[in-house]
Structure formats: C-alpha cells, structure tokens
Amino acid sequence: MRSDFRRAWQFLVRNPTFTAVSVLSLAMGISASSAIFSFVNGVLLAPLPFPGSDRLVLIQETVRGPREPASPQRYPDWLQAPSLSSVTGFYSEDFSVQMSESPEHISGYRTFGDFFKTFHAQPRWAALFPPMKTAGPAHG
User: Fold this and answer.
1) DSSP per position, 58-108
2) Hey, what's the torsion of the CAs at 82, 86, 87, 93, to 10 degrees?
3) Residues in CB range of 75: below 8 A, 6 or more apart
4) Radius of gyration of the chain (CA)
5) Number of helices (H), then strands (E), in the chain
6) What is the pTM of this model?
7) Of 12, 32, 14, 34, the residue nearest 22 (C-alpha)
8) CA-CA distance, 14 to 80, in Å (whole number)?
9) CA-based nearest residue to 90, from 64, 65, 49, 118
10) Rounded distance, CA 56 to CA 76, Å?
C-alpha cells in the first residue's frame, strides 16, 4: 500500500499540469456541491423563521388552466372551513404615493384576514389598521 502511494506521489510531482488540473477540478466540484447544498438547505429544508411554520398551507385553485393562488373573493368560503384555524391572504397591487409634487407609483401587497397575527409578526414600518367590517377583501 505504501508503494502505491509513493508511486502516485511521484507521478503527481513529475506531472505538475495534471496535478493542477486535478486539484482545480476537485476544488470546483467540492465548492459547487457545497453551494448547491447551502441553497437547498436554506430554501427547501430549513424551517421558515417564525413559530408554527410547519402548520402553514398554501391554498391554490385550478380552473381550466394553470394553478393559481386562491381568489380573494373566495375568502369568506375559506373562513367556513373547520380544519383551518386562521385564514389570511395577500395579492399584489400598484399604488400611487405622493410625498412631493408628483406622485410615485410603487408595487405592493394588500393583505386581508389576520395576516400578521397568523405569522406571529408585527409590521416593520407601519401601524396595523383595525379589522374592517367587510366579509372579505374588496378586489376588483
């Protein structure tokens, strides 16, 4: 066994190009594997950063086509489901904000239901508005 290692070492010393290519190939393979594992671990395997994240479900609907998020108009229907302890949702919308002379158009999300309560979170920059007395979101 020692003679095999000695012969391999001598071969590597005598062929520096082969040695460099071999070492670089190993380094690239190991770093690529590490990067892929870090991504998969962070995105798919690690739990979400809030309590009860293992109890969350995403409700989607399919109506003659691709799967899409559940319609906000169906919110009152989902509230009646006895197996769901909390129902919330969001949808994207464009807003106009006027901080100076001309309004600025921004994209954002409207939430409905107990959005922050469901995620055990507080808004970072805004205050919570009191719950609206409507049956669901007004989305046209």
Assistant:
1) --EE-SSSS-EEPPGGGHHHHHT-TT-S--EEEEEEEEEE-SSSS-EEEEE
2) 180
3) 87, 89, 112, 113, 135, 136, 137
4) 28
5) 4, 4
6) 0.50
7) 12
8) 76
9) 118
10) 19
Query: What angle do helix axes 16-40 and 2-14 make, rounded to 10 degrees?
Result: 100
CA–CA separation, 75 and 12 (whole Å): 68
Token couple for 46: 């690690």
List phi, psi (to 5°) of 124: -75, -45
> Are the C-beta atoms of residues 136 and 73 closer than 8 Å to each other?
yes
pLDDT per residue as tens digits for the range 37-54 = 999 988 888 877 777 777
pLDDT tens digits for range 72-112:
788 888 888 888 888 888 888 888 888 888 888 889 888 88
For residue 78, what are the CA distances in angstroms to 7, 59, 88? 71, 9, 9
Residue 104: strand pairing partners? 97
The reported pLDDT for the residue numbered 140 is 46
Domain ranges of the chain: 2-45, 53-118
